[in-house]
Specification:
Blueprint (H helix, E strand, L loop, with lengths): L5 E5 L3 H12 L3 E5 L5 H4 L8 E4 L1 H9 L3 H6 L2 E3 L1 E5 L5 E5 L8 E5 H14 L3 E3 L3 E6 L4 E6 L4 E6 L3 E3 L6 H9 L5 E14 L14 E5 L4 E6 L5 E8 L12 H11 L10 H7 L2 E8 L4 E2 L3 E3 L2 H4 L8 H18 L3 H33 L3 H16 L7 H6 L5 H19 L10 H11 L8
Parallel strand pairs: 1-2, 1-12, 2-8, 5-14, 12-19
Antiparallel strand pairs: 3-7, 4-7, 5-6, 9-10, 10-11, 13-16, 13-17, 14-15, 15-16, 18-19
Helix pairs in contact: 1-5, 1-10, 3-10, 7-8, 10-11, 12-14, 14-15
The chain binds flavin-adenine dinucleotide.
The site of flavin-adenine dinucleotide has 32 residues, from helix 1, strand 3, strand 9, helix 9 and helix 10.
Amino acid sequence: MKENRQLTIVGAGLAGALLATLLARRGWQIDVYERRSDPRVHGYAGGRSINLALAERGLHALRSAGAAEQVLRKAVMMRGRMVHFADGSQQLQRYGRNDSEVIWSVSRGELNLVLLQAAQAAGARLHFDRRLDTVDFGDRNARFVDDRNDSAHEHHFHALLGADGAGSALRSAIGLSTPLGERFEPLGHSYKELEIPPAANGDFRIESNALHIWPRGDYMCIALPNDERTFTVTLFLPNQGDPSFATVNSGNEARALFERDFADALPLIPELERDFEHNPTGMLGTLYLKRWHLDGRAVLLGDAAHAMVPFHGQGMNCAFEDCVSLASHLDTGDSLEAAFVAFEAERRPNALAIQAMALENYLEMRARVDDADYLLQRALERQLAERHPDRFVPRYAMVTFRRLPYVTAMDRGSVQRDLLVEATRGRESLDEIDWAWLDAEVARRLSPLPIET
Ligand SMILES: Cc1cc2nc3c(=O)[nH]c(=O)nc-3n(C[C@H](O)[C@H](O)[C@H](O)COP(=O)(O)OP(=O)(O)OC[C@H]3O[C@@H](n4cnc5c(N)ncnc54)[C@H](O)[C@@H]3O)c2cc1C
C-alpha cells in the first residue's frame, strides 16, 4: 500500500492491543488511545478475577503475535463441560476427542497486560486516560478527553480503527457521517459474577479442568477456573419472570435461589450475598451493523462491530480473528478503503454466523445438556466423528478447535443436526441406529473438510 502507514486504534482492550501488536510488527506506525488508565501501573480496572474461554481461533491469533506461550503459561485447561444436574449428580461431557481438543480459561486482566506489553514491544505508542469523545472526519481530527481532569487532547489521524467495544464511541461518530444500519437486540437475560475461593488447603474446590454448568431450564450458572485456584461463577437469569433479576434482588434472595436450585454450588460460594450485592448486573445482547467502515477513514472490529451473547465463548476469539484478517487485508490491499471493504466482506457474514450460533448455544447450555434425546444425539455425534473424521466434525468442534469460517461451521452444522435428528428419531440407544443408511447419508450430504494448515 502506497498510502501513509499511520493508523490510530481506539481502545486498548483485547482486540485493540492485539491489533496494535500485529500491525506494529508489520511496520505500521500505530497510536493506540484507551479510555482507562494504564493497567500495568494501576492494576486492571475492576480488580475482580474475570475469565474467558480461549479457543483455537484466538490461540492462532496470539501465535501470530508471538504471545500464545506467555498466555498459556497462566491458563487453565478445560476438557469439557461438567454438568451439575438438579439431583446433585455430575457428568463430564468432553468437548473434543482428546487433550488436543480443549479450551483454556484465561484471566481477562492478565491477557490484556500481556497484549499491551507485546504492543509496546512491537513499537506501538500507547496513550491511556484518553477517551474518544468526538471525531471530525473532514479534518481527520479526533478529540480525546482525560476523564480525570476533563482535559481535551486533539489528534490528527490518517485512519481510525475502532476496537472500543460494544458501546463504541467511534461507531457513534461514524454513524453521524454515514448510516450503519445499527440494531441492538437485547437478550432479555443478564448476568452476575460470583466467586468460588480456593479450599482451605489452597487447592481448587471442584474439578479444575472443566467448565462447570448448572443447567436449570430458563436459567443457569457456569464456573470457569482461574490459575489462582478460584472459580469465577456467572449466574445467568432472565430480566423478568420468576426467578429473574426482577425477583432476585438482594443477597438473601440470591441465597434462597441457590438453596432451591443450585444446592451443591451454595457451600462453594461463601460470599454469595456480598458478591451478589456488590458486583454489577451485566447486560447481554447482540449488535448488528449493516456496514462496518467509513471509506478509507475508519473501520470497526471486535465487539464494536458485532457484540454477541457469550454462550459460545467466541466473542474474544472472533475479535482476535478479526485482527488477523484486518492486518492481512491491510498488507495486501491497494488502499485503506480497499482493505476495509475486503475485511468487512470477509468478516461480516462470519460474525453474523457466530452471533446466531452463540444465541442457539444459550438454549443448549441451560436447557438441553441434561436432556435424554440431546444426550443420545451427542453420543451418536461422537461415533460419527470417529467413523468419518474428515467429513463429520461436530459443530462445537468446528467452531472451537478449527479455523474454518464460522459460516461453514454453521452450514455444515445444520446438515449434521438434521442427520442426527433423523437417525435417532423414535430410538433410545445407539444399538438401534441404522448404520448402513447413516454412513451412506454422511458421504452423500457432507463433503470432506479441507485440511487446515
Ligand atoms: C459475561 C461474558 C463472558 C464472556 N466470555 C467469553 C469467553 O469465554 N470467550 C470469548 O471469546 N469471549 C467471551 N466474551 C466476549 C468478550 O469479552 C468480548 O468479545 C471481547 O472482550 C471483545 O473485545 P474488544 O477488544 O472488541 O472489546 P473490549 O474488550 O470491550 O475492549 C474495548 C476497549 O475499549 C476501551 N474503550 C471503550 N470506549 C472507549 C473510548 N470512547 N475511547 C477509548 N477507549 C475506549 C475500553 O476501555 C476497553 O479497553 C464474554 C463476554 C461477556 C460479557
